[in-house]
Design a protein that fits this description.
Structural class: mainly beta
Strand content: over 45%
Shape: elongated
Oligomer: single chain
Length: 121
């Protein structure tokens, strides 16, 4: 069984910073892409940032220049450094991993439970 556990959410004032972390554990053979998504009340879940196993990254236009995604392949972790936070960044943030397991042998998408980020104005 695979688990993705997020940490690091919370309440911060506009202009502040937060760092989200996500650790994947379980019967993992290989992790392909990892990413962070967010969902604000009444809105669809959207991609915030993604990173491949080789380190290539992509970002939503709304966070470019403010957020940085990184990963540690040896530890199966992915982080999201969020700077210059704005009230519109308020949402539940979800960690995502496209990974291959050994038991059973398959490749699938896995999600964390979500962590709340609230930015006050």
């Amino acid at each position: 069984q695979v688990q993705l556990v997020e940490s690091g959410g919370g309440l911060v004032q506009a202009g502040g910073s937060l760092r989200l972390s996500c650790a994947a554990s379980g019967s993992i053979f290989r992790i392909n892409a990892m990413g962070w998504y967010r969902q604000a009340p009444g809105k669809q879940r959207e991609l915030v940032a993604g990173i491949t196993s080789g380190g290539s990254t992509n970002y939503a236009d709304s966070v470019k220049g403010r957020f940085t995604i990184s990963r540690d392949n040896a530890k199966n972790t992915v982080n999201l450094q969020m700077n210059s936070l704005k009230p519109e960044d308020t949402a539940v943030y979800y960690c995502n991993a496209d990974l291959m397991t050994l038991r059973p042998i398959r490749t699938a998408d896995y999600w964390g439970q979500g962590t709340q980020v609230t930015v006050s104005s």
